[in-house]
Design brief:
Largest sheet: 8 strands, parallel, barrel
Bound molecules: 2-phosphoglycolic acid
Number of strands: 8
Number of helices: 12
Distance between the termini: 6 Å
Shape: globular
Length: about 260
């Protein structure tokens, strides 16, 4: 049995309040047929208020794109877990490759952010993924394993079992170059196997593992068909309510086909 699809949109540094309003107006018009999936959007902090108002009455839930590991204090420019909760978030993306690449994110800071998210009652979406150079050097699984080991250090099996993971090959993000369903499945399986060693097989089987990297309506169905792909983390295509809605509907179509 496949799990109910889980599809999260990462709006990155895009969207102002008027665009959020227009997005939700379109979403509401197009959303019939998306109810069977769990649908999340992760707006920039400044658009969370508008998104929360617009999402009320829809099935869309909100996530943050990052959080600081302290709950409050003298950390100019940062946003904490309790602040995200206050703004209406239930989820938070942690360790996105853009954070790793441009903002010095490491395994140690991923680990601290996971702890902060859990303290605040947020469900972390923990991102892992290899660069093109690492893939070409045949280091993909080693890199993913190191990211998992470092990020998850010190957490109990119960805690790990409640996390959501996103496999996002860096070379597929925003490039239009998607991993093939087979390439993605190999890594998703490896992540689940690694989790099984930590938390046991049945619990690892229940963990949601998303794929991210140039997901579009045209490739969502084939990717979702793979046994260890439970949904998507969508960047570019989530900025258009219509394309995002199609990805959700394709996932549901595939889910019904497989089950
Ligand atoms: P993309 O981004 O869908 O634009 O490739 C995915 C992500 O970075 O989460």
């Amino acid at each position: 049995m496949k799990k109910r699809p889980f599809v999260a949109g990462n709006w990155k540094m895009n969207m102002t309040a008027p665009l959020v309003r227009a997005w939700f107006e379109e979403w509401i018009r197009l959303s019939p047929g998306t109810e069977e999936a769990e649908t999340i959007v992760c707006p920039p902090y400044t658009a969370l208020g508008e998104a929360a108002r617009r999402a009320a009455g829809t099935a869309v839930r909100l996530g943050g794109q990052n959080l600081h590991w302290e709950d409050s204090g003298a950390f100019t420019g940062e946003v904490s877990g309790p602040m995200l909760v206050d703004a209406g978030c239930r989820f938070v993306i942690i360790g996105h490759s853009e954070r790793r690449q441009y903002f010095g994110e490491t395994e140690a800071t991923v680990q601290k952010r996971i702890a902060a998210a859990l303290r605040a009652g947020l469900r972390p979406i923990v991102c892992v993924g290899e660069t093109l150079a690492q893939r070409e050097a045949d280091r993909t699984l080693g890199v993913i394993q190191a990211q998992l080991e470092g990020g998850l250090a010190g957490f109990t099996p119960e805690t790990i079992g409640g996390l959501i993971f996103a496999y996002e090959p860096v070379w597929a993000i925003g490039t239009g170059r998607t991993a093939t369903p087979e390439q993605a499945q190999v890594v998703h399986r490896a992540i689940r196997d690694r989790l099984a060693q930590k938390i046991g097989n049945p619990a690892a089987g229940c963990v949601i593992i998303l794929y991210g990297g140039s997901v579009k309506p045209a490739n969502a169905c084939d990717l979702f068909r793979k046994p260890d792909i439970d949904g998507f983390l969508v960047g570019g295509a989530s900025l258009e309510a219509a394309a995002f809605g199609e990805i959700v509907k394709e996932s549901i179509r595939s889910y019904k086909e497989v089950n």
